[in-house]
Hints:
This protein is an alpha+beta fold.
Amino acid sequence: xxxxxxxETTAAGLxxxxxxxxxxxxxxxxxxxxxPVPADLDARLRDRPxxxxxxxxxxxxxxxxxxxxxIHLGMSGSLRLAPPDTPPRPHDRxxxxxxxxxxxxxxxRRFATVLWTTAPVEAHPLLAALGPEPLGPAxxxxxxxxxxxxxxxxxxxxxxxxxxxxxxxxxxxNEALFTAGIHxxxxxxxxxRARYARLAxxxxxxxxxxxxxxxxxxxDFSDGHGRPGYFQQRLAVYGRAGAPCPRCAAPIRRVVLGQxxxxxCPRCQR
Length: 270
């Protein structure tokens, strides 16, 4: 699933190419995604200029003068800008025709979400309850320490709870916990203030590096230009069960926490 760095990479790549341009029409080739695509999307967007493109958690927000388009890429979705005369590819579900190019949502598994709202987007039910952005000023080790008090849930599960911190997915939770030297199964309430400070800093370092590398491509992800991400070449533990730890050479272990594959070093993480 595209996680925060992949979504941020997509937004950063598309923003200078789309903002200020006028959308000439929207074509729904397959509206049965995770939620039904609004059937009147073309009528709402035709001949409207795109004012801004931003990210909240794993959602892309396209701001138009008359409302907001929310897109979640789901398990296998990607957005790319193609020349105007590009024929649709297999699994292109929704096409937005701008005055200079064709924005294509490609989603083989059909788990993406395309929604429209005219209300303040921050109040949308999918966004209203989200926690602070991990790269924003409201996020810190002190915040993690505060919300974890009395919690028995595994610290990795806490980190992936969108109500605690927005947009942290499985790959980067694994990597941040390794960088901070914290065992992913440790109860969140048993982690002290100093270790949460290290974890917050580690998460920000990992996410920043992943964004700079264009995200992680494990199977389907590509950015707005159709290019894969390269952060997978720098993964320390994720997907490396049995491989030597880059610090101590102990074999990386894999367990399942919260129904998600979890990777850690049994020596370096406590």
